[in-house]
From TrEMBL:
Alphabetized SMART domains for the sequence: Iso_dh
Stored Pfam families: Iso_dh
Organism the protein comes from: Sinosporangium album
Alphabetical list of NCBIfam families matching this protein: PRK03437.1
Isopropylmalate dehydrogenase-like domain residues: 5-340
Classification via Gene3D superfamilies: Isopropylmalate Dehydrogenase (3.40.718.10)
A molecular-function term among this protein's GO annotations: oxidoreductase activity, acting on the CH-OH group of donors, NAD or NADP as acceptor
UniProt keyword Acyltransferase present: no
Keyword field: Manganese, Metal-binding, NAD, Oxidoreductase
Name recorded for this polypeptide: 3-isopropylmalate dehydrogenase
Length: 346
């Protein structure tokens, strides 16, 4: 079979450090790759004012998949790189599923005393192209005491139905076959009502799937005190963003949380990235944990149909995580990558 064509966007801060380890592990897995790096991020923005030039976007459409580190830098106003680079990629490449597993690996410490791996094993299906992220809204009388800022949430029947249907399929494929819709139907009555009706409408197509509903405030609590309630969670873009940082925290920390921005229809490449950001507080020090990126690489391979290779990487990570138990000496980003790569190769 031909080599996988992979676009790599290391981005900013620890993004470059963790992506290097992700590529190292891909190499150790013997994946035949043709990688092309893209220098998008803060540096390019400062040099040329460009965030995501049209020509680059069009080029990116031609790859099998994209691996991204993280974007965002203190030297760039908030939102420039996040909106005009990262979110633009998610929107333009129609990544309507933001897939974020929340899974406690054996041996990993969780702040939830007594929680076992079987208790924390869910997948959050976060909508990726709509909600408050769509950018609708505006500002009036800016800078005056009477300033008015609106930031609307965009929810289309088409957009909600396709992500809800994906979540049902995901639930159907898992042993517990449980789907929880998370929203705020008691306050966000227009959007919440649409999400609830769409879920009710799709449910009969999946008679084996048990459907549950939680308001997002209660869900935030249950993530912490009853994580075993959840199998597949489907939710809007912003709720999913927030819930998956809670998910990361309960499953061992943000350094372990992987994600995929998936275009299930395969009309454009999907993009895989850790849930965390560019972490300016530790950037350049070799302190970042590359595990989230390495698990994102496993998701990437799985998406491309290389399930065995993906499983091998996940097992290597599981082994490494088990061996971290009770070990206080911190390894560098590169050492963790080396150790996981050695397990994959060996
Ligand atoms: P962050 O995830 O970058 O960092 C939050 C905290 O987690 C920091 O203390 C950081 O040191 C720690 N952390 C993050 N990743 C880690 C890792 N791999 N290993 C060890 N510790 C890790 O979130 P933030 O501080 O809110 O945002 C920083 C910048 O990143 C902002 O510009 C933000 O917009 C951007 N951001 C980008 C993405 C992305 O590219 N997908 C995601 C989140 C935030
Ligand atoms: C994430 C990040 C992004 C988001 C930001 C940087 C746009 O927090 O990937 O979780 O909100 O989706
Ligand atoms: Mn986030």
């Amino acid at each position: 079979s031909r080599d996988i064509r992979l676009a790599v966007i290391p981005g900013d801060g620890i993004g470059t450090e963790v992506v290097a380890e992700g590529l190292k592990v891909l190499d150790a897995a013997g994946i035949k790759l043709e990688t092309t790096g893209y220098d998008l991020g803060a540096k390019r923005y400062h040099a040329s004012g460009e965030t995501l030039p049209d020509a680059v976007l069009e080029e990116l459409r031609g790859y099998d998949a994209i691996l991204l580190g993280a974007v965002g830098d203190p030297s760039v106003p908030p939102g420039v790189l996040e909106r005009d680079l990262l979110l633009k990629l998610r929107f333009e490449l129609d990544h309507y599923v933001n897939l974020r597993p929340v899974k406690l690996f054996p041996g990993v410490e969780t702040p939830l005393g007594g929680a076992k791996p079987a208790d924390i094993d869910m997948v959050v299906v976060r909508e990726g192209t709509e909600g408050p992220y769509a950018g609708a809204g505006g500002v009036l009388r800016k800078g005056t005491p009477h300033e008015i800022a609106t930031q609307e949430s965009l929810n289309t029947a088409y957009g909600v139905e396709r992500v809800v249907r994906y979540a049902f399929e995901k639930a159907q494929s898992r042993p517990r076959k449980k789907l929880t819709l998370v929203h705020k139907t008691n306050v966000l009555t227009y959007a919440g009502d649409l999400w609830a009706r769409v879920t009710d409408l799709v449910a009969p197509e999946f008679p084996e799937v048990t459907v549950d509903y939680c308001h997002v405030d209660a869900a935030s609590m249950f993530f912490v005190n009853q994580p075993e309630r959840f199998d597949v969670v489907v939710t809007d873009n912003l709720f999913g963003d927030i819930l998956t940082d809670i998910g990361a925290a309960i499953a061992g920390g943000i350094g372990l949380a992987a994600s995929g921005n998936v275009n299930p229809d395969r009309t454009a490449p999907s993009m895989f990235e850790p849930v965390h950001g560019s972490a300016p507080d530790i950037a350049g020090q070799g302190k970042a944990d590359p595990t989230a990126t390495i698990l994102s690489v496993a998701m990437l391979l799985d998406h491309l149909g290389l399930a065995a290779e993906a499983a091998r990487i996940e097992q290597a990570v599981a082994g490494d995580l088990l061996d971290r138990r009770g070990v206080s000496a911190a390894r560098s980003t590169r050492e963790i990558g080396d150790d996981i790569a050695a397990r994959v190769a060996g």
